[in-house]
Amino acid sequence: MSVLSRAAARLPQVPVPLLSPLARGWLRRSFGEPPLDSSAPQGDRGLLGPDSVSWRLYADAASIVGGIRSLLVQLTHPLAMAGVAEHSRYHEDPLGRLRDTSAYVAVTTFGATGEALRMIAAVRGAHRRVVGTAPDGRPYDASDPELLTWVSVAGTASWLRSDADFASNPLSPADRDRFVAEQGRIAALLDPRVDPTVLRAHGDPARALADGSVSLPLVEEGWLPTTEEELSDRMAWFAPRLAVGPQGRDTLQFLLWPPVDPVLRLGYLPTLAGAIGSLDPGTRRLLGLPLGSATSTVMRLQAEMALIALRSTLAGPSPNAQTATRRATPAAA
């Protein structure tokens, strides 16, 4: 029996009452406490602001499924996968990259301006070290426009899909376009050609970023999409460039059956199931995860059950969203 089959076979046996404490423990142990700086100035709206679509999408538990899905999609690019395989710690900490992804999204979305810019600087610093040669002989550089774009669009497409499939209040078509544009602007700040610290000089960095006050070459050159249609076009452009080799298959095994505490794994598997069930057929074929319609339906149902449990545990938007909303409210005169 394959790893995927073993995971899928266990999923229907997990009842919602059991998922609630498991989900709570998994959420705490996988993602940790909300990483936002509680000492940030009152009224700081961060890089996106509370009126952004990104705040709304990431506040919903469905975004957890999108985060896992994005990792599955990202590993189908051989050069991106080479960088992960040769420069990350996923062997020692199988869920560490998921935590890192979660922290990056949380801070750049909900964090105050200063901490968001520090997070971007840290990622850019890490990217400078992610250079090398892939097994097929091609060089890779994490700061290359193609790889920066791939990681961004794979994530954006995944979060949009998880929102459509699992969110309690899915985005409208217009808001889906807004989400693509917002994510493109944040991703563009990772470009070495951009000085993101200039945003500090603006009274409202979120507005300055949205109105074009800061030049973003990856957006201006057309690498990063600004609408869902452009996102689909960019994903289609990447399609012939995708493949899964030994490095990708190795990482996939960790994502499918991470060597972690069984209780932690049991909380993780239903959200993983939703991520796999929501993949398009082409990506499933690349990953070697063909699913019949019945299996896909069961896996998606398990994710929906897990998200119900998570929402009941959280009893509202994510802690990060709640913290950010309190901070973004202007101080009383």
Notes on the protein architecture:
This protein is an all-alpha fold. It has 17 helices and 2 strands. It has a domain at 56-261 and 286-292 and 320-328. It has helices spanning 3-10, 16-31, 53-59, 62-74, 78-87, 96-110, 113-129, 145-166, 173-188, 205-210, 217-220, 228-238, 246-256, 262-277, 281-287, 293-314, 319-328, and strands at residues 131-133, 139-141. A two-stranded antiparallel ribbon has the order 1-2. Strand 1 (131-133) and strand 2 form a beta hairpin. 45% of the residues are buried. Pfam families: MPAB_Lcp_cat. Keywords: Membrane, Transmembrane, Transmembrane helix. It is found in: Membrane.
In brief, what are we looking at here?
By secondary structure, the protein is mainly α. It contains 17 helices and 2 strands.
Topology:
Layout lengths: L2 H8 L5 H16 L21 H7 L2 H13 L3 H10 L8 H15 L2 H17 L1 E3 L5 E3 L3 H22 L6 H16 L16 H6 L6 H4 L7 H11 L7 H11 L5 H16 L3 H7 L5 H22 L4 H10 L5
Antiparallel strand pairs: 1-2
Helix pairs in contact: 2-14, 2-16, 4-8, 4-14, 6-7, 8-9, 8-12, 14-16
Keywords: Membrane, Transmembrane, Transmembrane helix
GO molecular function, one term: transmembrane transporter activity
Protein name: ER-bound oxygenase mpaB/mpaB'/Rubber oxygenase catalytic domain-containing protein
